[in-house]
């Protein structure tokens, strides 16, 4: 049994390694440290993440499927352009999917899950007061996860997760503007869910997610993500 468990853990770790590589490179791109046109060498990435070159290639292929990098024949992977409109499009898609999940959750959510949402809202306010950015991000994720689970629509939730992966909430959840937005939207979302008001829950969730787009665009501008393109235009 121990041998089987060990094999399972190793397989799970092998699956996680490319995801760690993708997350690292995605973060470097969004932080403006890697720019459109930069070629990505596998060895420095492997060293930075602490993996071999095989998961680096797998992780870069994941980023290729997301549109963050391109594969140039006989030359390797290169960072692809990532525009303001790309950001807005991603949040538009997230808003529609999250809104539908919230509407379905309003019809199915249990008193126990509502109590958990209340507790998350209270804990988020306390974490924000202490300035604990990591916990703020974790609690924001937990809030939305509870709603997505309540919707009982796993395929729809999976579609949302694949969209969110392009701009992980942990990347921007601790921004002051985002924290203030979350503290404003989450309590009223709980009210709509408790009332079973699907239409209200959908509208609130869509507006909440769409508002985040402006914060992320502003952050990426500060990171200098589009400076080179604007100088060349």
Automatic annotation (TrEMBL):
The keyword Ribonucleoprotein does not apply. The keyword ATP-binding does not apply. Coiled coil: none annotated. GO terms for molecular function: DNA binding; DNA-binding transcription factor activity. Residues 15-82 form the HTH gntR-type domain. InterPro entries: GntR_C, TF_FadR/GntR_C, Tscrpt_reg_HTH_GntR, WH-like_DNA-bd_sf, WH_DNA-bd_sf. Gene3D superfamilies: GntR ligand-binding domain-like (1.20.120.530), Winged helix-like DNA-binding domain superfamily/Winged helix DNA-binding domain (1.10.10.10). Keywords: DNA-binding, Transcription, Transcription regulation. It holds the Pfam family GntR. It comes from the Bacteria. This is GntR family transcriptional regulator. It comes from Actinomadura harenae.
